[in-house]
Fold these 2 entries.
Entry 1:
Amino acid sequence: MRAVAALCRTGRPIPEPLACWLAESLLSYLDHRCHSLNEAFGLRSPRGGVPWRMEEAIRKRDAALRELARQHFTDLTPAARVSRIYRISSQYAASAWLSDCKAASLPESYRGSAKEFLWHAFKSGAAMPLCLRQLRAILGK
């Protein structure tokens, strides 16, 4: 689906196999052969599981947080690293994120700073900021 979106956004033609898949999936939904668009596109979550879109958002958030720890806080103990990231993410949520959330792309002034990774973590769409316990679990991996 991301490939189709990227091609549409750039105005490039959709390759025939991808166009056929898209057409068949939409027709399955429109012809009532499937109960939902997720089902029509073959996107299923396990019963009681995390929906596929949220799972992707969580992966992006966790990767941004790990990279933040790796690039900016390697000199700290694991406990101090978690505590620092908790503090700065809480501060970011209460201040800069209030306006940054509207930005379509990373503010240039954030490149190379801790805010670069905070912006990506928040922009992922997954829950942010996280509690200490969740941060410990993510950064401990």
Entry 2:
Amino acid sequence: MTNKRIAPKAKSTVTVLNGGAHRGAERNLDALLDWNQLSSRHALVPRYVDPVPGRATALADRARERGLAAESIEGRIEEEVRELPEGTEPLILNLDRADTIAEVLRTTEGTARTTLGYLLVKLPTKELWALRFAIAPRDTEARSMARRLFTAIANITAPRGSSFVVGERAESAHVAAEPRFRAWMAAHTKENLGRVVAGLPPDGWPLEATADGSTSRPMVVVEGNAWRDPAVLARELVASPPVPLIRGEDFVIAEITPEGVRLHTVRLRLTDGDIRVTGLLAVTRDVLPSPESDAGSSADASHARATAIERSERTTATRLNPLYTTD
């Protein structure tokens, strides 16, 4: 019996429309290169779309120099997606403007494409967070949740871009931490591109956040006319969660009001399934501890109340206390 050597089949190409061709897209090149090296069946071809003259072309050139076939379009991603033919190829958003992310999510509603996206956010507390999402074609609830969040973020974002987040005017700790956050994003890209190309749903939660570049937390979005007690808000969500929540792990509530956005980190306790609100905000102006319930002196209670009010205002992102974002 003779052994026959089977010649490998040529890889079929999968064009991935990539909104944005700046810092985020460039840092994500390695994820696409690694994916192509691992896949024996498909080869990704990113098509970079950016309105800044020459930017998409320059990134496509750098990608080709590294062995990644790439194309470029000078234009706006929100306009390009309107002209896309029917298809299932994924869409990646490396955009620094939250309003553009929201518009693309709105425009692609009802299509068969999975949308991946990433955003770095510098909070008013000077903490660096990162957001990532993978919205499946028919997940209308997740799409609506993400669209509402990015619309709210856009309304309270200072127009200064990457220089204040991870650039020359950023906190030195944030510049040092950027590689961790980029790796967190790249891992998401590689994992989900593989699943989408194979016809499988995305992995993980539709919308995720990290404050350290390694720990992923599901994020849920709640809108209201005024700020609410975070504990009450969390218990209502746990009673009817919009996404699966795991005991013993944290999740993040993005609370949106006409005033701005607040983030609450919540722990669903392992022992009894009860909740504990931690992280950025534990109280709001409406639910501060009363002097009667404080075990200390009235002076201590007054001080605690004043401190809670100050912290509540300081950790709320508004137009007078804005965010900074970048791709």
